[in-house]
Write a structure and sequence with these properties.
This protein is an alpha/beta fold and about 325 residues long. The chain contains 10 helices and 11 strands. It has helices spanning about 20-30, 50-60, 75-80, 85-105, 140-160, 185-200, 220-235, 250-260, 285-290, 300-315, and strands spanning about 15, 35-40, 65-70, 110, 165-170, 170-175, 205-210, 215-220, 240-245, 250, 265-270. Bound molecules: guanosine-5'-diphosphate-beta-L-fucopyranose. Guanosine-5'-diphosphate-beta-L-fucopyranose binds near residues 76, 116, 139, 208 and 216.
Length: about 325
């Protein structure tokens, strides 16, 4: 059962592992309004795939709190094309950080997973206890297995060593600092870029992958960071916590919303040779809501804000 922890961040040294990624960068922005000291490690300081380097960095820097936002991430095609990278790198990063954190006496650790840890056909909205109740979605089972292992690591260190290590499972995220590469990105940045470039070229259509019927739940990364800090401060328990918006849309509906924001008025064509992935993964937001947290950024506003960021930084 979840418990109210009341963990105080005041004066704590907080290491955001993976601060250059979309989630890590949002966490750094969010933690700036807390009275804590944020510490980060560049790739030259510590290669998190290397156990010795990770341990050396942690023993030297001795954070009080660790947030594991470092991960090998990507969209459906990247996950399906590079299974070894997604499984190996994520296993190594999380195992290295969690074990070294124990040695360095880290008091609190928050491990980040993903909604793809749940079975492909889990009952919706997906409760936290659906984990390991059925087969995974094949396109991302490698990433999912690594993230499930990360949850189990946090649980096992709590059980065996009494460490206050917890896990949170964010839904599909989007926002500033996202990856806009069309081969490796998630759907939101891909659609923003496709619609933007099609409008610029005066194209009559854009092509989306799959049938457009899968449903996905989207959360702006700044809301995610806020939810994660809330969990860090208010939760201590064995089970992980879902971080979502509580609402989902079809990929076609998302495409229409993106096209409206971008101002692209052409046709939407479906490339059904590309995979759909899991048909739906709407997570239950009940546990997080019971802790008093709600998201603030609606989907339409979030898309517009992300498009603005794209124009200023990648356009
Ligand atoms: O965001 P996405 O790549 O990942 O794709 P998943 C979501 C849906 O959008 C799929 C469709 O049904 C895609 O086929 N889609 C349509 C597109 N057009 C596009 C496009 O141009 N690019 C992309 N990327 N998708 C990932 C997992 O699954 O979600 C990860 O592979 C992780 O492990 C992440 O869990 C959050 O939602 O299918």
């Amino acid at each position: 059962m979840p418990s109210e922890a009341g963990f105080d961040l005041t004066g704590k040294r907080v290491w955001v592992a993976g601060h250059r990624g979309m989630v890590g960068a949002a966490l750094v922005r969010r933690l700036q309004s807390e009275a804590c000291e944020i510490v980060t490690a560049g790739r030259d300081d510590a290669d998190l795939l290397r156990q010795d380097q990770t341990e050396r960095w942690l023993m030297k820097n001795r954070p009080d709190v660790v947030i594991v936002a470092a991960a090998k991430v990507g969209g459906i095609l990247a996950n399906d094309s590079f299974p070894a990278d997604f499984l190996y790198q994520n296993l190594m990063i999380e195992a290295n950080i969690i074990e070294a954190s124990r040695h360095a006496g880290v008091g609190k650790l928050l491990f980040l997973g993903s909604s793809c840890i749940y079975p492909k056909f889990a009952p919706q909205p997906i409760q936290e206890n659906s984990i390991l109740t059925g087969p995974l979605e094949p396109t991302n089972e490698w990433y999912a297995i690594a993230k499930i292992a990360g949850i189990k690591l946090a649980q096992s260190y709590r059980k065996q060593y009494g460490c206050d290590y917890i896990s949170a499972m964010p839904t599909n995220l989007y926002g500033p600092e996202d990856n806009f590469d069309l081969q490796s990105s998630h759907v939101m940045p891909a659609l923003l870029r496709k619609a933007h470039e099609a409008k610029q070229r005066g194209d009559k259509q854009i092509t989306i992958w799959g049938t457009g019927t899968p449903r996905r739940e989207f959360l702006h990364v700044d809301d995610c960071a806020d939810g994660l800090v809330h969990v860090l401060k208010h939760y201590s328990g064995f089970e992980h916590v879902n971080i979502g918006s509580g609402e989902d849309v079809t990929i076609l509906e998302l495409t229409e919303a993106v096209c409206e924001v971008v101002g692209f008025k052409g046709e939407i064509v479906k490339d059904t040779s590309k995979p759909d992935g899991t048909p739906r993964k709407l997570m239950s937001a009940d546990r997080l809501r019971a802790m008093g947290w709600v998201p603030r950024i609606g989907l339409k506003d979030g898309i517009a804000q992300t498009y603005q960021w794209f124009l200023e930084n990648r356009g």
